[in-house]
Design goal:
By secondary structure, the protein is an all-alpha fold. The chain has one domain. It contains 6 helices and no strands. Helix 4 runs antiparallel to helix 5 and helix 5 runs antiparallel to helix 6. The protein starts with a helix and ends in a 10-residue tail after the last helix.
């Protein structure tokens, strides 16, 4: 598989994740009265997938913050499994898990942003700020209704979905620009 093919596959994965995230966000905003059981299972699956992707990035990534990706991945996977296995637990558990996940992910992404190159820094800072703000809002008011939490999470997921779609599109453009013989080795 050529470098262009690898980048293209990553772009397709980001586009797919972006569509799923965007769809989940729209679902949460439009139909917030859906049962907690369905919502927590869907978000649990998202967190599990997001955690597994972060773990893969920690293992095969080339960034300095691989340890942070690993921590975010493990926490997201654990949170996802809890939400999938215990959908009927109280709203406080749901709020706590999602709020903590957003704060931890936001802090980790903030640290990662300062280790990233200039091109990636702005996007990472935006996602970190969104995650942190949403997590803090959710944790500051742990007793809101499911509807409020769904709308907050829906907005976060819509924004993340758009960012994933944009990143996937950018990677697809990069893959198309790579010559058939591949990239020249770095000197």
């Amino acid at each position: 598989m050529t470098e262009a093919d690898q980048i293209r596959w990553i772009s397709y994965a980001l586009l797919f994740l972006g569509l799923l995230t965007l769809a989940l966000g729209i679902f949460l905003v439009i139909d917030p009265d859906e049962t907690l059981k369905v919502i927590t299972k869907v978000i649990g699956i998202f967190l599990l997938v997001d955690g597994l992707i972060a773990l893969v990035a920690a293992i095969v990534g080339r960034v300095e913050s691989r340890g942070l990706f690993g921590v975010v991945g493990v926490l997201a996977a654990i949170a996802g499994l809890i939400l999938i296995k215990k959908p009927n637990e109280t709203i406080e558990l749901f709020v706590l898990i999602v709020g903590i996940w957003l704060v931890v992910a936001g802090i980790a992404r903030l640290v990662i942003a300062f280790g990233a190159g200039r091109a990636e820094r702005a996007g990472s800072l935006v996602v970190a700020a969104i995650d942190l703000i949403a997590g803090i809002v959710i944790l500051a008011w742990p007793g809101p209704s499911v509807k409020t939490i769904c709308i907050i999470l829906g907005i976060v997921f819509v924004i993340r979905g758009v960012i994933y779609l944009w990143a996937g599109r950018q990677l697809n453009r990069i893959a198309k620009a790579i010559p058939p013989e591949g990239l020249a080795p770095a000197a």
